[in-house]
Amino acid sequence: MEHAQEREACLEQTQKYHVKRPIYNQELLQGQLCSSKKAKSHLYSFLPILKWLPRYPVKEYLLGDIISGISTGVMQLPQGLAYALLAAVPPVFGLYSSFYPVFLYTFFGTSKHISIGTFAVISMMVGGVAVRVVPDEVVSVDLNSTNVTDLFAARDAERVQVAVTLALLSGIIQLCLGLLRFGFVAIYLTEPLVRGFTTAAAVHVFTSQLKYLLGVKTNRYSGPLSVIYSIAAVISEITTTNIASLIVGLTCIVMLLIGKEINLRFKKQLPVPIPMEIIVVIIGTGVSAGMNLTDSYGVDVVGNIPQGLRAPKVPEIQLIPTIFVDAVAIAIVGFSMAVSMAKIFALKHGYTIDGNQELIALGICNSVGSFFQSFTITCSMSRSLVQESTGGKTQIAGTLSSIMVLLVIVAIGYLFEPLPQTVLAAIVMVNLKGMFKQFGDIAHFWRISKIELVSTFVASLLLGLDYGLLTAVTFAMITIIYRTQSPQYRILGQIPDTDIYCDVEEYEEVGVRFSCIEQFYVFNQSKITGVICCLTLSHCAFSAVCLACTCTNDVEAGVKHEIANDELPVNGKFTSVDDSVQDRSPDELEYFVEPKTNVHSLILDFTPVNFVDSVGAKTLKSIIKEYKEVGVCVYIAGCNGPVMNELTRLNFFENTVTRDLLFHSIHDAVLACHVKDASASQTTEENLVCSATVQISVWQRE
Prior knowledge:
Layout: H1 2-13, H2 26-32, H3 42-46, H4 49-52, H5 58-86, H6 92-97, H7 100-108, E1 115-117, H8 120-133, H9 148-179, H10 191-214, H11 226-236, H12 243-265, H13 276-291, H14 293-297, H15 320-349, H16 355-370, E2 378-380, H17 381-389, H18 396-412, H19 421-431, H20 433-436, H21 442-463, H22 465-484, E3 489-490, E4 492-494, E5 501-503, E6 513-516, H23 525-540, E7 567-570, E8 573-576, H24 579-582, H25 586-591, E9 598-605, H26 614-629, E10 633-637, H27 641-649, E11 662-663, H28 666-677, E12 683-691, E13 694-701
Parallel strand pairs: 6-12, 9-10, 10-11
Antiparallel strand pairs: 1-2, 3-6, 4-5, 7-8, 9-13, 12-13
């Protein structure tokens, strides 16, 4: 008694609001409240540059974009040369990949700060495919032949064709996913999965560069256990280490680490970061040319860099069946890397990016670039940080960096021919520093998601980056499907005299309801229907409702009437249905048991529903029709716009199922039930059942 008085006093002191408005169903709401939307310009969506370039504030942005473009360009050049080694193609193709895609992204991309171009992980995946399709063993070198150089040139040419065809195919996949609005595929690459994958990729990249750092001659391996084979090959040839190559490489590593540390400690004092990578390239090239390291010490150098741009060439389409699976993995990883960095910068600077348009942009960059001999690209984390920190405001900075690479290609590229490959290996290894730091996060992710972390890391390390990633993503998808088709339940109830529904375990004085959260689709629709029937049977004691369980779709055939003998789920657990019901046969339940309570309305709360497929729509329609046959009207409340559009597309609405059954909120539907039954009898709220994304409010007559 005292508790009730205290509760009433508390309610009197709280603020209240009163709403007086018509009862809205979906048809009335659309007719009176929904204003017509302006059609979006597809051209502006496809070419975002048309939106921001006419409004470009030259005085405020141009200087920052110029400084940022130059700073990024001096990183783009050495990284393009270095990552070409990872892709198993001659260094000049890294320059092509640093120009065409970067320039194209200016027109189609939505991020203002990411730097598109070569990236270690993607280059390593491309190189793995190229080496698998065109292995070193393909070149049968005759020791007495004088055309050894030509044989290796032919091998490199074949690998280039594999790389550019892979870029074409991965670009087409990204473009198709973007046009089909499949940007959500990135959600399957969770943070633990990405951390495990990139950490394994760092190990792959590091081991692949040991041969260049030491100057030893070994084959390059790809596929399962390639890391182990690469390390074993280097160890077996360790006695043939080129000391000059090792000294040059280690010196460059020390210089790069010192430069990065200075940039990190004095980033507030420095107007722009010290471009240590281009400095190391210039010094290495000068030392190699001055001391003639190639002839005097046998140091491997970059070699021929042809001047000018190559004429467009169609990739070898016949390679597509061989590399299709690899292209899918590369396309998804490339998009995930780009969109994750783009979201970080967009959140920091207060603008939005379009994930689907990013897919389209990357697809165009890769597919069009492949005709000009560029391999697959994505966003570079290190260059993006430089581009943003040096004052870059728009995609103009990326355009200027690509123009710098173009000048090198057409004018001064030949000057870098004496550049030792060990210098490029040093650049690659030092840029892995951030990835190797992720080993420090293993303890954290081990606590929150050890299965994803270990499965991804181990699979990617042992099976290779492509098959390791596919294994991890497949495991993640199976986990998601398992969780979505195994819904968890909770009891809800209405706070008296309000339209608020809360967990009965937290609020003791609310009426009984039933709830769970899930999608309504093919993998769980049978459980949804079964729970609906089971709960209406048990809580309302209305046995004839079991007829609704005999849905007409094929998937439901196996569960006809079986829920009469199932246990009732409550708060994720199960409790037995009333014994008097369990002892009845299905036929008795359907035809002979009289209802104890006259249920007349059933309200499905679709507020948490975000997806309905064709099987779910068919099942829902069957529920509405079959409950109608036993005199129970089924209403739907809180159905959001995308789900409404999907139901319309699936021809859900017809003569028997109209939009009049849909209401804006649960309370609208509840009031409509009151109005409908006001002339017959006084109505009271008894049961709200929420089955798998579907909350069901069951109204009964006293």
